[in-house]
């Protein structure tokens, strides 16, 4: 069983077979892992932006155990990918993502804000979990919060996360037949 939260993006192999090359020190990246219960089951999206490429995977989680384990993390089952995409972005698209990564990186240096805790996965009205990892040049920043907190944008960091997630995901929609994830377009 995989464990989620702050270790997910660092432990899982990128996109079940896609080789994502390690990037150089002076480049940009953005990784997202979002998971939330829906009527059809607990669904996830995994997005990874590397310079001019976007890797996307979405699907369902099989074997969900919505309780915390003894490490304080959720046990989730296996990620069952329904759709995978590898997209090449145009220069203007990449530049837009670069600027949003830059804004989020600056916010983390200037005014680090406390984010709401991740939600649960055990019921339809849970807030879900979103993990974000960005890198701008040699600066690395990670965030873990709930999908709904990002959707509601209660502070400038959540607004910046939503802007980056929405802008990144719009190049690949629909994902698994959805134009939005939870309430985030």
Structure description:
By secondary structure, the protein is of the alpha+beta class. Helices cover 24% and strands 36% of the residues. Strands 7-4-3-2-8-9 form a six-stranded antiparallel β-sheet. Strands 1-6-5 form a three-stranded antiparallel β-sheet, with no helix packed on it. A hairpin with a 2-residue loop joins strand 8 and strand 9. Helix 2 packs antiparallel against helix 4 (156-170). Residues 1-25 have low confidence and may be disordered.
Order of helices and strands: EHEEEEEEHEEHH
As residue ranges, the low-confidence spans are 1-25
Helix content: 10-25%
Overall domain count: 1
> Major β-sheet, in short?
6 strands, antiparallel
> What average pLDDT do the residues reach?
79
In one word, what is the shape?
Answer: globular
Beta strands, count:
9
**Which CATH class?**
Alpha Beta
Q: Note the beta-strand portion.
A: 35-45%
Distance between the termini: 30 Å
CATH architecture: 2-Layer Sandwich
Number of helices, where a helix is a run of at least 4 consecutive DSSP H or I residues: 4
Instruction: Output the strand order for the largest sheet.
Output: 7-4-3-2-8-9
Rg on CA atoms, Å: 15 Å
What is the CATH third-level topology name? Mago nashi protein
Supply the helix-strand structural class. Answer: alpha+beta
